[in-house]
Amino acid sequence: MSKKQHAFTLIELLVVIAIIALLMAVIMPAMNKAKYLARRMVCTANIKNQALAQKTYASDYNGKFHSHTDSGPTYAKSTVGPNDRQHKDNLYLAMIGYVGDVEIMSCPILKAPPLRQSIYKANDWGGGWGAAYERDGNINNITGQYLWVANYKSKNDGKEPDYDFVDGRGVPSQGMPWPKNDSEASSQRAFIMHRVSFSIAGIGRYRDITHGSKKLLTESPEDDIFSSSVDNPIGLADGSVDINLKRDMKPRAKIREKTIFYY
């Protein structure tokens, strides 16, 4: 005698689907947070390895970090005029041997659109650390997702950053000078970070290349950026890494009298 098979009723199927949907709603946020934290750990490790590369260089050169004379600290090499093309004393060529694996110059969180800045991508204007490495450094401009601020002077005017100013919102600066050598490398000084900046020139725009960025360039009110609770690692000059919420970022340095950096 054969057993009678029992089929699920429509109500039973709907209950199962509802339970699965409820479980997904509970599990997915936790999974997304775990994925983000894992990627942030990689970003933090990148910063520590970059700091180690700079400190190793300094130990080979009487404690002094290599001069960083570019249009901005986003650059590792920059071209202002045609005669700069063959300039050899740039940060990239000095540091690429110490960096070793150029993957440490790529943040896993910033790989996703719209902030896709592959370190291997290059064009006639420039490229990332990996693109320059593959092409023996013969690229006019080399940029990165991390700012290296040690021993920085503006290539345009030869001046060090200003750390005593008031930004357009009336907030006074709260920055310590960027270190020039390892003896100044304390936990009170910034060393490596992602970028949030405001350009005073022209109509004025914010540039946001950080975790949680919605738009690379924006003319929206600063609250669109600084209301965020997304965290961003910042490498300190003693080699440690701190976690800074975007809503807690303050104006810290100004270069060329027109670009303010927040961290």
Q: Could you give a quick summary of the protein structure above?
A:
The chain is an alpha+beta fold and 263 residues long.
Low-confidence spans: pLDDT under 50, at least 5 residues? 112-116
What overall geometry do the principal axes of the alpha carbons give?
Answer: globular
Order of helical and strand elements: HEEHEHEEEEEEEHEEEE
Rg, Cα atoms, Å: 23 Å
Q: Distance between the terminal alpha carbons, to the nearest Å?
A: 77 Å
Mean pLDDT: 84
Please count the helical segments. 4
- What does the largest sheet look like? 5 strands, antiparallel
Strand order of the largest sheet: 10-9-8-14-13
Strand-pairing-aware structural class: alpha+beta
Total strand segments: 14
**Roughly what fraction of the amino acids lie in strands?**
15-25%
Instruction: State the share of residues found in helices, binned by percent.
Output: 25-40%
